[in-house]
Write a structure and sequence with these properties.
Blueprint: H1 28-43, E1 50-54, E2 58-59, E3 71-75, E4 89-90, H2 91-94, E5 100-104, H3 115-123, E6 127-131, E7 141-147, E8 150-154, E9 159-161, E10 166-175, E11 178-186, H4 196-265
Parallel strand pairs: 2-4, 5-6
Antiparallel strand pairs: 1-3, 3-5, 6-7, 7-8, 9-10, 10-11
Length: 274
Amino acid sequence: MLDYNLPRYLPSAEELPDSDETPVDNELQELIPGLLKAILLILWTERMDWLFGIDMGIYYHPDKPPIVPDGFLSLGVERFYDEELRPSYVLWDENVVPIFVLEVVSQNYRKEYTTKLDEYAALGVLYYVIYSSRRRRKPHLEVHKLVNGKYELQEGNPVWLPEIGLGIGCERGNYCGVTREWMYWYDEQGQRYLTPAEQIKQEAQRAQQEAQRAQQEAQRAQQEAQRAQQEAQRAQQEAQRAQQEAQRAEVAEQKVQQLTEKLRALGIDPDNLG
């Protein structure tokens, strides 16, 4: 909840302007927060208690212009409350201050390191993140955490954000066909979460591997069937040979019996020969 006095009668989001009509002056101001949101849409697909706004006005007072960060994250709010979606983010309607705000610095410096620090601190935004790829001697990414009403710069890349359950950092990668440094979400062990395109590629590779394994299993099954057929043929041949041996033995026994009868007819006892 906001800790300052507001007028008694307050306009709704539909009654307030949904844009400050100021165009972004750098494509990265759309692409970087767009990538972070795209990852969340897959990572938190089952969750309906969060909102990631991009270039969306945050109204904190009906008589003052909104603050419009490049991106912000709120937790504990309705993901969607109707099919028209939110035209803006009105604090006295939401009753939740964004927990994370992102500013991407462009050529037209907009006081990201000065005035906006104070503005977001006054609102009570827990994490204020500034990204500038143009910096040479200082880190491109700064993560500021609100501690006792003042922002403290956090060390590391990525930086773990326990209240969100994610880490934020930057590294080189490819997004929208552009290879450069991008911002990503990370797990607690510092492993980067995949982009949607990377996840699709990974799933395609998995499916291909599964298809190859299935093909190998089919080939093994076919080989086993061929071996079983060969064993059956060998068994049949053995049975035929055994039958032939039995027939030969029967013929030999008949010949012995015939010879025995002939000897007895001649008065010779075949049992006393020798």
